[in-house]
Amino acid sequence: MRLPARRLLPATAITAASALLTGCFAGTESATGTGDGKRVRVAMMQPPRSGLSPLSDDAFKLSRWSTAETLVRLDEDGDARPALATGWRQSGRTWTFEIRDGVTFHDGTELDAGSVVRSLTEAASASPKPRILDGVELTAKAADAGTVTVTTATEDPLVPQRLSSPQLSVLAAKAYRGRTVNPVGAGTGPFALTAVHGTASATLDRYDAYWGGRAKAPGIDVTFVPDGTARAAALRSGEADIVEAIPVSQAAVLDQDLITEVPMPRTNTLYLNNAEGAFADPALRAAAREAIDADAIVKGVYEGRADAAEGLLGPALPWAAKLREPVARGARAGDPKGAAITIGTYTDRSEMPEVAALLQQQLQKAGFEVKLDVREYTNIEADALAGRFDAFVLSRATVLDSGDPAAYLYSDFASDGTFNLSQFADEGVDTGLEKAADTEVGDARRAAVVAAEAAVLAADAAVPLLHERVVQGDAAGVVGAAHDPRERELVTVNTYVK
């Protein structure tokens, strides 16, 4: 890939970034439990939103710090593999999981079937539920000290994948004694969470009794740095060892040997309102699709650090490209004749307004009259879900929490999908989506998923633009940092700083 021309940060930006970083990583040498070697200093983008409760999106932080673990993990293909459970079997609506022996929580108590049942029951009865259990009725029971049965209201081939979600982490009893779930000192991973300082920082120390072997680093010091320029400056100045989510605009000014780009299961998509307005006309949906130049968006907005989309599922799911066939389109492009449309998007991801502006130019060139409505996501989501835009630009995770794209496709494109921004309804597509969701995990399910994707694209329910990459910075002395497309791993048992 040809790298963009090197650019220098303005002095004012460097000064601002340095001010933001002052004190961010101070005091890590004196943190408790330093042990041997160097502690890993991590700069993360988003501070905790729910006090690091595993029942929220904060669960992914606990997973990335290797402090909370689940019964199951996912391999590169999204297939379930043993973690705190060593094996499982299905009988109708019930799955039986064998719990790993010799595991202790960070408070010294032992992992057993009762511990698992307590954590899963807390999640299943939470309000709101973790999103991996949205629409799922799940009951967990201890068959004996080392065996747990999980039963769902309907037969569900994805139960093991669901149980890989960080939001279903298994914690010690102490985590559930307050009004909220408190993960401090309650996980089973190689690092014990010892302190959380609001939305500023967190401290983790190595847990020497970890069932998977002693971690190579003595601990982790996390600082939350929402400002992208400041995070990049932390890597450049040597104040952080690992920096997540470096903005594309900053990546070009860093030492490229310190940058790793990993394809994410996240697609930047233009959802077209199929129910009303200009795009209720299939010919105008086709006209919009043909007018869009995704390569120009990749180069102009993402500076080449993204992949132009061939479908809704990108290179983070390599099996999709192998199975995909050319899409048979259902309509020919019509003449927009000045059709007025409004595109909505949000400011929370800095690239979205720029993407929308380029789309505006491309669609206007094709003959549409285009207005933009750009707000913070919390202020625009309700209108988007209600179909108040002709089109909406969204950066969307395509495997959600189960590692399986069938749930995303159903949510976004089924007639009764809960995130159907396109207001799309097609009985034939519904049948294909249901087949994908009900098919047993494996090659047959993947084929059904790709067939459902083709049906959605044939109707121009949405136009996939590009697949994002996560840009991560690792200092020269970092060894073994994870580069995980699903953003579940970051510092692992094998990560250390020379």
UniProtKB/TrEMBL annotation:
Keyword Metal-binding attributed: no
Leader peptide range in chain numbering: 1-26
Pfam families assigned: SBP_bac_5
Keywords assigned by UniProt, alphabetized: Signal
Residue ranges annotated for the Solute-binding protein family domain, each copy included: 81-418
PROSITE patterns found in the cross-reference section: PROKAR_LIPOPROTEIN (PS51257)
Name recorded for this polypeptide: ABC transporter substrate-binding protein
Species in which this protein is naturally found: Streptomyces osmaniensis
